[in-house]
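In full, the data:

***
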Amino acid sequence: MVTNSDYAAEPAPADELAAPLDLLLTGSAVGIGRRMLPNNSWSRLAVHLARRPRVVGGRVLALRHELTDIARGRSERAPAKADKRFADPAWQSNPILKRSMQAYLAASDTAEELLTDAHLDWKDEQWIRFVIDNVLEGVSPSNNPLLNPLGWKALVDTGGASAVRGLRRFVGDMARAPRVPAMVEPNAFTVGENVAVTPGSVVLRTEVFELIQYTPQTPRVHTVPLLVVPPVINKYYIMDIAPHRSMIEYFLSQGQQVFAISWRNPSAAQRDWGFDTYGQAIIDALGAVETITGSERTHLQASCSGGILAAMTAAHLTEIGQDHRLAGLTLMVTVLDQARAGFAAAAIDEDTAKTAIAVSQRRGYLDGRALAEVFAWLRPTDLVWRYWVNNYLQGRAPAPFDVLFWNADTTRMTAALHRDMVLMGVHNSLTVPGGVHMLGTPVDLSRVTVDTYVVAGLADHISPWQACYRSARLLGSKDCRFVLSTSGHIAALVNPPGNPKAAYRVGAPDDADPAAWVDNAAQQSDSWWPDYAQWLAERSGPERDAPATLGAPDLPAQDPAPGTYVHTH
């Protein structure tokens, strides 16, 4: 069972320990290694600690005493139950391995305690914590090929072949971006064969996107359709990842007419596509959906960076008096208010933004592989060192996992859109009415009054749930439903019913304090998908017979789903 403590806000001084879009986009352009270099935050750390010599001396003395106990075999220090790095019995039975593990854990705790003792302001604390976390993760004895028992066992079991395979994998991974251990084999899945397999057809192709209409799975369907707007920094098929785990498939089974945008993977030739290009693309897709279904209203569902564009487009439609075309707005793991979101907000400044923009402008795009590297180093234990041990020390292929295959199937972002996104994030423009424009009109999210459904993930390290909550409160909707899933960034989306461990809280985001909202929001078990399906149904009009064919006379069915743009690398 999930309790209130599971939803508790992170400790002060930072509001969230995750990364909004501006960090991901600047870090991808200038390199995550820059975050590891010494700067003024380190000087201030030294000054703050120098002012507390007794505290520092006490910590050092306590560490010395514990290291002495460890050397004598008297220490009871053990890893946390959730720490899988030291799960092999040899870490407990072998005296050398046990002592190295205990010494590492003791030193790590001391480093964390000294950082807390320094009482830095939240920006400095977040910058230093990012560096310390990555350094401590990197020097873990579990990553050392001379110490990790899993590597030695593989070496013996394979007669040395594991070392050859591991070295080959290491050389291959380091020879090409993103230069982190591969999380999945590139041929583990095939798009259109075992991922993105829900039947449908492309009914509109422009130079910016393909619009896919999916084949109805019920004899009768709701009259008001659903248009899915995916992120622009990943391919769309996370919404159709696999049978029985596909969000698109599930909503078709609930009688929805589902359409999805599949963005073109741009090259340098499309360097000038910015906010307006993508906003107009959403409006063009909306018009095509209206033509095909005959409905005057459409549900707009969007996620992550696609949610930012969808919210801005909704504000534009409101400004020109066409918000009646929207039956509802759904934003999933979308951050519109990026203020003080942990390390990200601490690490971004005008100079960094300008440098990042200049880099992508020279290339014409932001390379998605660089973005994948940033994602990985934000969670080094799970996304880097786990595969370091598996791929290199044990010489094994990573296990096939469709979500990681999708994650590795990267896309590029145009230079203009990169510029627009970075500047918007640095200035937090969406929190200020008129702070940014879409298609020539000022964006004022408080004027967006359409019914809204907002989803966030409790364990999301990309879109902090507190920031998603604040973002929901920016909208002017009088009927807003906020859902907090117990999952992370992707698992919050790929969240089919039937998971006994899943749960979510739901309610209107009326309280200004996210933590207070958690205390009062109703908790539900299982997936939020059925709740959303009911919310959609209540706003999707009467049912009618499902269409016998896809498309319309002026928009005939073309290539079968998942279309052609999704195959461009």
Notes: DSSP finds 20 helices and 18 strands in the chain.
